User: Which sequence fits this backbone?
């Protein structure tokens, strides 16, 4: 070993990250800060903008794979919330709330940015991106707080499904902005988006059916952890291979298993028992990967985007809850719990930047800067909403 940070053994780096996870868990129990925020801050300190303990090569090797795995684990667990039985019981309410929330967010952000005389194409794209939430962060705050009840069930169900509506809205907006920008390849963009949604659903069902049958049948009683992890990781890898959404694929798998498996809760308990170590690595590496340089170029547009997005989410969720007949506690606190923004929004921003390279700088600066802010501070609001609704 020469003393270079690049020469740190991988085991040492992994050990440091797991110890940060332990510290985040302990601090989170005695402060108002959720462990998601603490893990992101810990990763920021370890990354290139901090003490540079995590080399770029390490981040480039581990972060993409762990992102897919983390999204798959959370997507699978969220899929349980939208099983056929759950949809029969609360389906109309959940669908109504999620659709109104997505449309409401888009309308508020679009109206606000139009009022500020921003470029129409940028306005429509940022408004669509604003509808995306961060399922991984929200789920971890719920899991850490050990929150249960009708409010939590509604929150997780909305989180599970609203990114589907958000992705559909984004595809339609990409088509509309293609017309405004004179893009002749609009049909290809729509087809690509629909392929991602349809492919994710088909892949999730194709893997979910055998998983529902086999999980718990290799041995009598509780299933082996290997069964559940095997299928979820297979789904994550297949989604990457076919270039479809890992979280939508895994969520469809979870919905299929929850709807068809005889002992449908057992595979979810198995995954819950192993997801925390993956979450530690994911959030620490996410923090280390944050490009804080974007904050240097974040101006009034980013501040306006954050304020309008949070306002739109809150109003959209509240109106959706009123239309759906949700109780007053859910009406008051659901929108606040949905503030986190992360990977889904960044993915949309990258797609928009590829389609409109002339606007890439403006779009990415706003989305990256707002994501840094919301990834760190929005989970705190989510935790307070859970505390107030309990």
Assistant:
């Amino acid at each position: 070993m020469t003393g270079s940070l690049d020469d740190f053994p991988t085991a040492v780096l992994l050990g440091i990250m797991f110890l940060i996870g332990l510290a985040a868990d302990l601090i989170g129990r005695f402060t108002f800060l959720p462990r998601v925020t603490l893990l992101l801050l810990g990763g920021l300190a370890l990354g290139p903008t901090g003490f540079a303990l995590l080399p770029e090569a390490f981040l480039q090797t581990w972060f993409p794979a762990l992102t897919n795995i983390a999204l798959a684990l959370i997507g699978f667990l969220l899929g349980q919330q939208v099983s056929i039985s759950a949809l029969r019981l609360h389906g109309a309410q959940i669908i109504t709330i999620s659709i109104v929330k997505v449309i409401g967010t888009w309308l508020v952000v679009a109206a606000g940015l139009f009022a500020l005389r921003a470029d129409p194409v940028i306005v429509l794209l940022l408004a669509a991106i604003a509808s995306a939430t961060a399922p991984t962060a929200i789920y971890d705050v719920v899991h850490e707080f050990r929150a249960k009840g009708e409010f939590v069930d509604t929150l997780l169900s909305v989180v599970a499904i609203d990114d589907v509506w958000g992705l559909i809205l984004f595809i339609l907006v990409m088509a509309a902005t293609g017309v405004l920008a004179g893009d002749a390849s609009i049909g290809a963009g729509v087809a690509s988006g629909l392929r991602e949604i349809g492919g994710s659903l088909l892949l999730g069902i194709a893997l979910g059916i055998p998983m529902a049958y086999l999980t718990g049948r290799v041995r009598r009683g509780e299933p082996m952890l290997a069964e559940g992890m095997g299928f979820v990781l297979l789904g994550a890898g297949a989604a990457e291979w076919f270039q479809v959404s890992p979280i939508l694929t895994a969520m469809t798998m979870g919905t299929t298993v929850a709807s068809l498996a005889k002992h449908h809760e057992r595979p979810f308990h198995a995954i819950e028992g192993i997801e925390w170590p993956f979450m530690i690595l994911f959030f620490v590496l996410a923090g280390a990967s944050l490009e804080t340089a974007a904050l240097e170029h974040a101006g009034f547009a980013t501040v306006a985007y954050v304020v309008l997005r949070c306002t739109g989410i809150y109003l959209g969720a509240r109106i959706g809850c009123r239309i759906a007949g949700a109780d007053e506690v859910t009406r008051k606190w659901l929108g606040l719990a949905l503030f986190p923004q992360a990977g889904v929004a960044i993915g949309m921003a990258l797609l928009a930047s590829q389609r409109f390279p002339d606007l890439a700088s403006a779009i990415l600066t706003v989305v990256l800067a707002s994501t840094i802010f919301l990834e760190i501070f929005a989970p705190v609001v989510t935790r307070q909403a859970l505390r107030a609704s309990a």
About this structure: The mean pLDDT is 80.
